[in-house]
């Protein structure tokens, strides 16, 4: 039996380095997802409380990407793709059932990226699905696939033909996979491991990213882009749920796609619960959230003296934190109330 020590976002910090960058404008945080350039290395998750046409349009306008979820009829998903006004278009599909018809339908409506969206992507069903999609579409569509937690998983999906791969199993904010199944690898470790690949597929750090600092750590560790759920949920542009008022504060639902509530809604029954549903305070427009992320990521690069993501990855030096370091790294002012 082998055991290993695995790191996650709070276990490390990036060591500040000499910088001659005078303005965040000198920094280019653009990235390549196969042949697609994203000016902002941020992708919204294909979840039914995050990404439909409006979110995908705003992601596109900000230079990122939105992946329209698959938890609806094929006709409705195709309509959502058609309704997306801005950006490069991406749609999620599964690996069984109607996935091939769904793929044909969303591609016919203009999807250029198919995201094969399953919890455990290092699987024979994934291999068969990619093969079938390649037989149908050749290289005319970008295949995003996942999720994987290991370098072996990453390399397998890349070899089967995935152009970009969602990395991290069990790290999402609404995820209970690790509690339910005992399986997973801490998120940052997965990125560090997958970054050792020699394969030509983009690395997407998916799940567990709570702020721009986590995004910078993921990008420094080798991710080409980050995928976000909770950071974008609860915005005006997030989809799927009514606004409810709790103590006068507007809230929206954010839920895991394997939560009881979500499963009941999309397939009328629930089993193997690996997610939870939560009600979160609304945050205003996603444009502001993305603006802050953009600034935070640029500032992160400037602390490492890097003008591009490639420079960040080349220069990054991680240091381990102790529990005392983790506590010091959070705001920790004593004895005052009204801290905002
Ligand atoms: P967050 O950004 O930490 O909220 O994580 C979002 C990610 O969690 C998604 O992009 C998925 O990879 C993952 N996810 C979504 N729903 C579930 C679920 O029900 N169980 C486990 N993981 C989930």
Account of the 3D structure:
The chain is α/β, with parallel strands linked by helices and 340 residues long. Helices cover 34% and strands 19% of the residues. The protein is built from 12 helices and 15 strands. It has helices at residues 53-61, 74-83, 99-108, 124-137, 151-160, 177-181, 187-194, 212-221, 260-267, 286-303, 309-315, 323-329; strands at 12-14, 31-33, 36-38, 42-44, 65-68, 90-93, 113-117, 142-148, 164-167, 202-206, 225-228, 244-246, 249-255, 277-281, 318-320. The strands form 4 sheets. The protein has an 8-stranded parallel beta barrel with strand order 4-5-6-7-8-9-10-11, surrounded by 7 helices. A 3-stranded antiparallel sheet has the order 12-13-14. A two-stranded antiparallel ribbon has the order 1-15. A hairpin with a 2-residue loop joins strand 2 and strand 3 (36-38). The longest helix has 18 residues, at 286-303. It is globular. 49% of the residues are buried. The model has no long low-confidence stretch (mean pLDDT 96). Residues 45, 47, 147, 172-175, 177, 206-209, 227-230, 256-259, 274-275 line the site of inosinic acid.
> What structural class is derived from the secondary structure elements?
alpha/beta
- Percent strand: 15-25%
Average pLDDT figure: 96
Biggest sheet: strand arrangement:
4-5-6-7-8-9-10-11
Shape: globular
Biggest beta-sheet profile = 8 strands, parallel, barrel
User: How many DSSP E strands?
Assistant: 15
| Number of H- or I-type helical stretches | 12
Order of helices and strands: EEEEHEHEHEHEHEHHEHEEEHEHHEH
Helix % is: 25-40%
Distance between the termini: 48 Å
| Radius of gyration from the alpha-carbon trace, in angstroms | 19 Å
List unreliable stretches of 5+ residues.
none
What small molecules are bound in this structure? inosinic acid
């Amino acid at each position: 039996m082998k055991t290993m020590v695995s790191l996650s976002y709070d276990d490390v910090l990036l060591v500040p380095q000499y910088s001659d960058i005078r303005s965040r404008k000198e920094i280019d945080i653009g990235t390549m997802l196969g042949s697609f350039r994203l000016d902002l290395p941020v992708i919204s998750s294909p979840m039914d409380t995050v990404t439909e046409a409006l979110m995908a349009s705003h992601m596109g306008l900000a230079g990122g990407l939105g992946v329209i979820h698959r938890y609806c009829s094929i006709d409705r998903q195709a309509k959502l793709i058609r309704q997306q006004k801005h950006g490069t278009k991406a749609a999620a599909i599964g690996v069984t059932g109607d996935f091939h018809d769904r793929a044909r339908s969303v591609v016919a409506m203009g999807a250029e990226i198919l995201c094969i969206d399953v919890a455990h992507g290092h699987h024979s069903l994934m291999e068969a699905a990619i093969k079938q999609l390649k037989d149908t579409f050749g290289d005319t569509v970008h295949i995003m696939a996942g999720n994987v937690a290991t370098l072996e998983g990453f390399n397998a999906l890349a070899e089967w033909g995935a152009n970009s791969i969602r990395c991290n199993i069990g790290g999402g904010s609404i995820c209970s996979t690790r509690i339910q199944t005992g399986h997973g690898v801490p998120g940052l470790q997965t990125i560090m491991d997958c970054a050792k690949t020699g394969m030509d597929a983009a690395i997407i750090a998916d799940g567990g990213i709570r702020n721009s600092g986590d995004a910078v750590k993921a990008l420094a560790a080798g991710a080409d882009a980050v995928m976000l759920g909770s950071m974008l949920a609860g915005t005006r542009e997030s989809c799927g749920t009514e606004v409810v008022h709790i103590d006068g504060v507007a809230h929206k639902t954010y839920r895991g796609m394997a939560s009881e509530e979500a499963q009941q809604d999309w397939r009328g029954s629930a089993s193997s619960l690996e997610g939870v549903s939560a009600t979160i305070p609304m945050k205003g427009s996603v444009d502001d959230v993305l603006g802050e992320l953009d600034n935070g990521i640029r500032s992160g690069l400037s602390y490492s003296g890097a003008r591009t993501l490639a420079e960040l990855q080349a220069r990054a030096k991680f240091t381990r934190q102790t529990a005392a370091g983790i506590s010091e790294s959070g705001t920790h002012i004593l004895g005052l109330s009204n801290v905002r």
